[in-house]
Amino acid sequence: MDLQPLFDIPIAGILFQLVDYMVRVLTLNGAVILALAAPIALGSYCGFMNERSGIVNIGIEGMMIASAFAGWFVASLVVQAFPDQPKADFFFGASPALLIGVLAAIITGMLVSAVHAWLSITVKADQIISGVVINIVALGVTGYLIIIISRTAPISAGKFTPYTPPEFLTDLPFVGWIFNMFLNHGPITMGVIVIAIVLQILLFRSRWGLRTRSVGEHPKAAETVGIDVIRLRYRNVILGGVFAGLAGAWFTLDFGNSFQANMTAGRGFIALAALIFGRWMPLGAFGAALLFASASSLSIALRTIPPTGDLGNILTALPNQFWAALPYLVTIIILAGAVGRSVAPAAVGKPYERESAS
Amino acid sequence: MINKLLSRSIRGQLAITIGAIILALLVGAVIMVLTSPIITGSFDPWLWVDAYLALVQGATGIAITLNPFSIEWLGLNGIIDTLVRATPYILAGLAVGIGFKAGLFNIGAQGQFLMGALGAVTVAVFLADAPSFIAVPLALLGGVAAGAAYGFVPGWLKANTGAHEVVVTIMLNYVALAIVSWAVTGPLRSTTATFARTDDVGAAALPILGGPSGHELHAGVLIAFAAVPIVWWILYRTTIGFEVRTVGANPDAARYAGMRPKLLITGTMAAAGLLAGLAGAIEILGVQNNLPATYATTVGFDAITVALLGRANPWGILFGGILLGALRAGAPLMQIQAGVPIQMVDILQGVILFFLAADLIVRWVFRIRDAKGTDVDELKTVTSSYGGSSASGS
């Protein structure tokens, strides 16, 4: 199909060129985009579990880096103890070491979340401070440990093998790239969309979801109908740690196979942005994560497949750093209400005091 | 005056702060001992003694050896290092602290610091051939203006749209990284350097007050020490300071009393940006001498610890800034002499904050009874507004 006549329309032509370029690049890079979106989306599910129950969590970054380290380190220890690891070819080339690593990452995410829950709910410390503490300690401890551990030249446990979707699916016209985008991945990345759908349904269609929303919006009312606010908040915050743990495991066991200090590089904060952009809903946050990942993949594509014509002149004139800053700028614009308001759960950030306690 | 300083509640707060520091040092010691097999090759239950003694020596110049016991002062170098390192912490700590006083959590000191550094270096590069007495003040002004503008944005957004400053400033920190990276790899890139950095600041370099090579005491230290009483005076002895503190304690009361919360919030954030920007400018003009594209600094985040250690009080922030400056100044010697990575300081800092947040542990360990909470009162205003009630009403 020749679209050239459309492109030649003055001014509006650039829009057609942009759409054409995006379709070409995004269908080509679909798998990369989903991979880049995975840790952001998982982090935002962690934030979702917290903030929907009324707890601010700006410690997602710290939870992710702690889990990334724990997953990598434990898997590496297992491999050093048992060098002959069987590999399950039918399940992403999983070895016991990798699975134990993922488990360690999840448990670490839950433990760090438990600290956050204790500080925010029981101690009634400031929830933002608690998040700051988690970020500083997690970054410090993992940075300290990786320096001394790398002196011992540790062995990596490797990583999951991405699934290769059959060619008859990926070669399908028009929809083939969707299969490639969602299936050409390791287990954690592939699970991201499933978790979003499940959480979305649970939030609006289950008893747990109704209770969680009520605790996040109006805990006093929730308590009067017999919901244990404190217990539900604890449970949700700690369960949220599972997703931060998976996000951590993504870095060191699914997408990569090694650990570097500060390797999460602000993804936990983009996750926070995605949560706000997605209006505190799992599917919304997943969409936002995809959007943010597309922006960064576009900046790579601009160098590898440079667009031509007027569009090329405009896009290549934008500095690379513009794309890096885009998710953050978009979040500020959304928060400021310029493009429809995104409103947080009403009780978020307020410690809950039982009536009878005073 | 002394009586007022040492009132019951302040004594309690001081006790909790010192208790938190002691507990954090204990946790650090445990981590060092647990990891000693990797650091020294064998289990060493006394590694922490070597490490902390090296830390003290690096920060103060006081060298203590235990076996045989001797104590010796090696001169001013350590103290100069501590003061130079403390300078940006004090200024950026004030930037976070005055935010707290107005009920604002300025997590954006990092971005404001970077923008201040960028503003200062931009002016400095353009004035490379100007005489120093013109270049230095203008470069400082450039940094201050850039920082203030960068603080103004979240303040204005909070006041007029209700966008919460915590999220906005976190986002702006990353935007600042991108701006610095763009400016330094683009228009400001030095043509002579082998990697992406700006030209040297040249004539705008801060005057050196003294000290040997490698341990120079630059004039910016004086600015930081002067800023503390000035900020204290504005906060506690002027009408504006009173209004800022009232908005922080209770925005509704402030509005009913005829104050203008929107103006105060915007102004406080701009002032915070000004202080953090000044910190960035001084660090570039006094220590760094040029701005690399990937300027690795954590001053803006460490400033949160400083402000909380000082309970948002300017004199407390002075103490917190010097403490953190000392830890940073001593850390390299700790790494050389005891093999403990300098990242130990990040851990200590985080754990101090943890114990300040969980002050019930500190109270229980040290049997402290007569103290109010250590948390900054105005923080309640900060966190409970996270859900997005704007200053103009809820």
Describe this structure in words.
The complex is a heterodimer of chains A (358) and B (394). In chain A, helix 3 (60-81) runs parallel beside helix 5, helix 3 packs across helix 11 and helix 4 runs antiparallel to helix 5. Chain A has a single domain (4-162, 175-357), classed as Orthogonal Bundle (ABC transporter involved in vitamin B12 uptake, BtuC), CATH 1.10.3470. Chain A is 70% helix and 0% strand. Chain A contains 15 helices and no strands. Chain A has helices at 4-7, 12-52, 60-81, 96-122, 127-150, 167-170, 176-183, 187-205, 207-217, 219-224, 229-255, 267-277, 282-304, 309-317, 320-335. By secondary structure, chain A is mostly helical. By secondary structure, chain B is mainly alpha-helical. Chain B has a domain at 77-325: Orthogonal Bundle (ABC transporter involved in vitamin B12 uptake, BtuC), CATH 1.10.3470. Chain B contains 16 helices and 4 strands. Chain B has helices at 2-5, 8-40, 47-60, 77-101, 109-126, 132-161, 165-185, 220-237, 239-249, 251-256, 261-288, 299-309, 314-338, 344-357, 359-366, 379-384, and strands at residues 62-66, 69-73, 208-210, 217-218. In chain B, strand 1 and strand 2 (69-73) form a beta hairpin. In chain B, helix 4 runs parallel beside helix 8, helix 5 (109-126) packs parallel to helix 7 (165-185) and helix 14 (344-357) crosses helix 15 (359-366). Chain B is globular, with a radius of gyration of 22 Å. Mean pLDDT of chain B is 89; it is low at 389-394. Chains A and B meet through helix 5, helix 12 and helix 15 of A and helix 2, helix 7, helix 12, helix 14 and helix 16 of B.
